[in-house]
Amino acid sequence: MADMKLEGIYKSYGDVEVLHGVDIDIVDGEFVVFVGPSGCGKSTLLRMIAGLEDISGGDISIAGEIVNNTPPAKRGIAMVFQSYALYPHMSVRKNMAFGLSIAKLGKAEINNRVDAAANKLQLTELMDRRPAQLSGGQRQRVAIGRAIVREPRVFLFDEPLSNLDAALRVNTRLEIAKLHQDLKNTVIYVTHDQVEAMTLADKIVVMNDGNVEQIGSPMDLYHRPANLFVAGFIGSPKMNFLSGSVSGVDGDNVTLSHGVTLNRPGHSCASGDAITLGVRPEHLQASGSDLSGSVDVVERLGDVSYIYLILPDGERLVIAEPGTTEVAAGDQAGCGLDVTRVHLFDGNGQVIG
Amino acid sequence: MSVLLSLFSKKERRLREAGWGWTLFAGIISLIYFFPVLWIIMTAFKTRADALATPPVFFFTPTLENFVAVFYRVAQTGGGEAISTGMGGFFFNSIFVASAGVFLALIIGTLASYGFSRYPLKGNDTYLFVVLTTRMLPPIIVIIPIFLMFRMVGLSGSYIGVILLYAAFNLPFSIWMMKSFFDELSPDVEDSARMDGSSEFGVFFKMCIPQLKAGLAATAVFAVILTWNEFLFALLLTSTDTRTVPVAMARTIGGEIGVEWGLLAAIITLFLVPVFAVTYLLQNHLLRGVTFGTIKK
What we know:
The complex is a heterodimer.
Chain A: E1 4-13, E2 16-26, E3 31-35, H1 42-50, E4 57-62, E5 65-66, E6 77-80, H2 92-102, H3 107-120, H4 136-148, E7 154-158, H5 166-183, E8 186-191, H6 194-200, E9 203-208, E10 211-216, H7 218-223, H8 228-233, E11 240-250, E12 253-256, E13 261-263, E14 274-279, E15 284-285, E16 291-300, E17 304-310, E18 316-322, E19 332-337, E20 343-345
Helix pairs in contact in A: 2-3, 2-4
Chain B: H1 2-8, H2 20-44, H3 48-52, H4 65-71, E1 72-74, E2 82-84, H5 87-118, H6 124-133, H7 139-153, H8 159-184, H9 187-195, H10 200-211, H11 213-228, H12 232-237, H13 245-252, H14 261-290
Antiparallel strand pairs in B: 1-2
Helix pairs in contact in B: 1-2, 2-14, 4-14, 5-8, 5-11, 6-8, 8-11, 9-10, 11-14
């Protein structure tokens, strides 16, 4: 079992605190993705789990055992780095066998494990090459192979796809997903790309500025974002935000300055409170007339068209319309709001209801 | 004429093999630079008369008498038998002192630069600057205190004294050069080795050093050249037993019968051999070393 628990994790460099108390529970076999913008502390957190960075406060435990001071190799963890970090002076075979020979495994056992991993990753033909003689995708596979042979309890991936070109990225993403289905190990994966997070994760941890903003399944985060940051971060194009205020309250119903009334049981809104209305571009109907404005730009991708509206008060809105739209730049256009798919955030950016 | 024309013609310049014109031009420039060395080597094979001939002679019957004279001279008294000049010993001294000094500087320099690169101190750059200031003073300024210090501790005239001094002399440069090579290495590779269970010594010796062979070779060549030609410290800090070739060479200038140009040229020719050999053996590494990191990996 490789359940993992992060409790109150802090990290400071001198006087600068970069992680402000992170709590995450990871269940054995789960694929967890840490996602967030650059500099949010996700890679630092991953390196702390790996044992490559000291922990300033809190506890990391794997299978019930606190590993704060356990050296990296003793944690039962293998890591795949963004830069691949292959040993440039060693052949592919030696790269993969290095950790095993340090662990003093027998030669036969080392060869078995390396060959099995090479087979799985289609590296058999490349075993005698040096990293410099490999393509980006091949290097990435060697890096993954090097992690697999150690048969770790937990795999760590630090932005493993960011150095690959777009087509290869999709392929490798699928390979990683298949690998996880095969091996069923716990995986912690760091990325700033929300598409990777949505497609790979069982559980996503959205981080911002050294804090965890929300933890949940991809669909949880998509349908029930806890705050403005998560709402804006998950989904592409990002969610539309319209600022406004509460114009009336009637029991569980809240009426907004936009003319919409939403049912939010347990809300604590009062008339006049500043709020933000959030709605995803794909949840706006191009045929309605709840909101209208002039069309600024239209992007047609074939399967979907994005219509960029400028509302009379100057706010901007993106509508995703399936298929190819007839609307052109300069037209007046309207859209309909589906109140069941609208998100409401208070003045602090927290979701209401 | 056609050479000059090809030089100045405004033909499209592409990355291609140089034509005969450019090759000849480069050859002439190289010859101008290399001529002093060539002249010395030629003089080494001339008789005294040829060496002093005016105008200088380019074609002559080569002789090895100067090379023999480097190591043996005819005794003034007795039966005129050949006696050793001691130059063989001085060559040994030069090779021994330079190799040991450079070797020591490389070991200490590599360890220090790894520290500077991977475990920076507070004020790391200041320390690095301080390290370099020791080479900013002209040797003539520091030679007197060093001479006195060496005499006080009894290092004057000993091998160990000169070796330590040459190691210290090469350290700043080795540290700076090696640090730039360490800075080029990806720390991820070292972290990766740590994840694989490498100790810190393993990371240094099995990951960093094998990647830095080129850098080590480049640093070694520069240090060898600097040390090999060093004169002033050797002049004042070596004794007759530990004297190096540059000092011994200087003593052949200004003998009773004027400068023996042929002899001097022969010593210099022999003196060039080891440094040529080291540079030649390491030249592939050297080129990689000095261009390290200029291309995205």
